[in-house]
Amino acid sequence: MPREHIIIECTEARKEGKHPSRYMSSRNKKTQPNRVEKMKYNPSLGRHTLHKEIK
Questions:
Q1: Could you tell me the pTM of the whole model?
Q2: CB 26 within 8 A of CB 37
Q3: H/E/C letters for each residue in the chain?
Q4: CA 1, CA 21: separation in Å to the nearest integer?
Q5: For residue 26, is pLDDT > 90?
Q6: What is the separation of C-alpha 36 from the centre of its chain, rounded to a whole number of angstroms?
Q7: Domain 3-54 of CATH type 2.20.28.120
Q8: Is the pLDDT of residue 55 over 90?
Q9: Residue ranges per domain, the chain?
Q10: Sheet holding 3-10, edge to edge
Q11: CA separation for the pair 21, 42 (Å, rounded)
């Protein structure tokens, strides 16, 4: 099955000492072989931040 479930986590919250937000997403392994990066909303910071895939 080429589609897998992943968790993406905020990259800016830990630098500011706040709780990082996490989101569930999915990706197609065949079309996206690299780690996923998306702009998502972080409620603890109150703005959209870059979220990267974690293992």
A1: 0.84
A2: no
A3: CCEEEEEEEECCCCCCCCCCCEEEEEEECCCCCCCCEEEEEECCCCEEEEEEEEC
A4: 28
A5: yes
A6: 7
A7: yes
A8: no
A9: 3-54
A10: 22-28, 3-10, 47-54, 37-42
A11: 6
